[in-house]
Amino acid sequence: MSDLLKRSPLEAAHIELGGKLVPFAGWNMPVQYTAILDEHSAVRTKAGVFDISHMGQFLVSGEGSLEWLNKMLANNVAKLGIGEGQYTFLLNGHGGVIDDLIIYRTGENDFFLVVNASMIEEDFAWFAKHQPESIELRNESELWAGMAVQGPESSAVFAVVCPGETLPPRNGISKTSTGSIVCRTGYTGEDGFEFFSPAEEGGEWLKKFVAAGAKPCGLGCRDSLRLEMCYPLNGNDLAPDRTPIEAGLGFFVDLDKGDFIGRETLAKQKAEGPAVKLVALQYTDKGAPPRAHYAVFSPEGEALGELSSGVHSPSLGTGIGLAYLPSAWTKIGTEVRIDVRGRQFPAKVVKKPFYKPAAKA
Amino acid sequence: MNVPSDLRFNTSHEWVRLEGDIATVGISDHAQEELTDVVFVELPAVGRAVDAGDPTAVVESVKAASDIYAPIGGEVVEVNPEVEANPALVNTDPYGAGWIFKLRVKNTADVESLLTPEGYIAQIS
User: Is ipTM strictly over 0.90?
Assistant: First the structure.
C-alpha cells in the first residue's frame, strides 16, 4: 500500500524535524508536528511553514495563451499584468467546478498555474483535451518542491532566508536569483508567500525557513485556518455538481469577458438566483466539533442539507462549518441545528469569513 | 510516557482507579497524546448502567471523535463537569483533573482482568 503513496521531496526533512506523516490525498504528508492548535496559533500570531509539494504546477505559453485560458477559466485572465496572479475556476460544461486554482502571468504569453494535488491528472487532461496546437502546456508538478510560509512574521522569515531579495506584492509572482518561484498568496488569510524550489533543494529550504523562525506545520491546521477564512476545499466545498455562483464565489467569475466553458449555467444562475447557496454556520454555544457530511436541520426538524466542511475553530473556540442550504435558509442569522451522532447543536448562518486576520502589510 | 503504577488499564486506553466499589475512569497519557488537543467531551448520564466494553463517553480532538468505553460493568454515579467546561484538562492532567466518569462497579474482582501498568506499557511500546 505504502508503495502507491506519492512522496514529497521534503519527506526526509519532515522526519528530521519531527513531522507525523500520514496518507493524505494519495500523498504521504505531515498532518501535524506537535499539535494542530499549536500550529494554527503559530500561523495566526507569528509564522508557520507548510509543505505544499503535493500541489501541481502547469506552464502555459505560446501566442494566444491568454485568449485560450480565458475560454478555459472562469475569471478574467486579461486583467492580469505581468507578475500578477488571480484565483479562478476550471469548470465543466455545466458550470460545475473541476478545480479551483491560482493562475499567474509571468510573461506576455506565459502563465504559471498552481492546481490541487488530487486534481493534477484530471486538470491536465481537461486542458490537453481543449489545447490548440499553437499553445504549449507542460506539467511541471514533479520538478518543484513547494512550501507555504504564512503568518504576520512571514516577511521577516523571507528576509532572513533570502537576504537582498524582494517579496512580490500581494497576489504577485517573482523569481529569486537562485531560481525559485515566489508567489505572494496563501490559504490561511494571513500575510505570506508560497515558495517553489527545484525539488531536490526542497528539504534544505524547508530547514532554512524553520531556522528563520517559521514553525513547521502539518496539513491539519491548514484545514482549520482555511475554514476560518471560508476558503473552499475542492472535493468538499467545491464539486463538479456545484457552481462558483452557488458557492458564493461569483466575485471570481467574469461573465462579461466573453464565452468560456460553463458560462451559460453561471449566467442563468446569476440572473435567476441559485436554488442553493454555500453558507457559513457557527454554533451559538459550545458543542461537539462539526465535521463534513453531518446533517443540518431546521429548528422544526426539517432536513436542509449537510456540512461540506466542519471543524472546531481554534480562533473562535467553537464549531464552524460550511453547508449548501436551500436559498430560503441562507439569510444571515437564520437558526439551524447541526446533528452530531444524533445529538443536535444549535447554530446560525453567519457572515463570511468566520475570522478576520489583522491588517496585512 | 506517564503510566502510574497504582492504576489498571483497558486495551482501548482507558485507565481505572478503584477505591472501594467506585471506579474512576479517564484516558491514558498515551491516548491523550495520540488524540492531541481535546476540544469536546460528551459525558454519560448519571444513573446509566453499563457493561464492560460499552461506549460510555466521547472525547473529540480537532482531528476526530473517539469513543470511551466502560472498562468494567457498573452504574455511572458521577461525571466530571470540569472536562465538559474545559476539555483541555484531558490533555494537561489525564490522571487527575481530566478524569471523565465514575462507576459503582458490580464486581470489584473484574478490575483484575484489566492490564497492569507493566502490561499497558508493553502494549503501547
Answer: no
